[in-house]
Amino acid sequence: MAKDDFTLDDLDGGRTDLAEYESGMGPAKDLEAVYDIPVQISAVLGKSTMQVSQLLKLGRGAVVELDRKVGEAIDIYVNNRLVARGEVVVVEDRLGVTMTEIIKSDRG
């Protein structure tokens, strides 16, 4: 399996199969109460550190160098928690992100 392919087993720790999700009989049914809760999703292209005096000198057209290289994966956060890495894509006239790697949490 390519590194950018993942299955439902990757997301739920392999505890159930797809048929249970589709039938509404598995863990997805138990999660229906949280489906409408909004979450904040952030895709971070990179970071930079500078002094306030440098920040105030920035003007239109200024370039801020980030800590990432072209083609390097970006970080995807849900509610300020790193959950995945991905790539920037263009969909029609908008930017989007495609997930290429799910970050497994140490919390269980």
TrEMBL record:
Skewed-composition ranges (Basic and acidic residues): 1-18
Q: Give the subcellular location.
A: Cell membrane; Bacterial flagellum basal body
Q: Where mainly located? A: membrane
Q: Which keywords fit this entry according to its UniProt record? A: Bacterial flagellum, Cell membrane, Cell projection, Chemotaxis, Cilium, Flagellar rotation, Flagellum, Membrane
Membrane association type: Peripheral membrane protein
Residues of the region (Disordered) are: 1-22
Q: Where is the Flagellar motor switch protein FliN-like C-terminal domain?
A: 33-103
Q: What does this protein do?
A: FliN is one of three proteins (FliG, FliN, FliM) that form the rotor-mounted switch complex (C ring), located at the base of the basal body. This complex interacts with the CheY and CheZ chemotaxis proteins, in addition to contacting components of the motor that determine the direction of flagellar rotation.
PANTHER family hit by this protein: FLAGELLAR MOTOR SWITCH PROTEIN FLIN (PTHR43484:SF1), PTHR43484
Q: Which family does it belong to?
A: Belongs to the FliN/MopA/SpaO family.
Please state what the protein is called: Flagellar motor switch protein FliN
Q: What is the lineage of its organism?
A: Bacteria, Pseudomonadati, Pseudomonadota, Alphaproteobacteria, Rhodospirillales
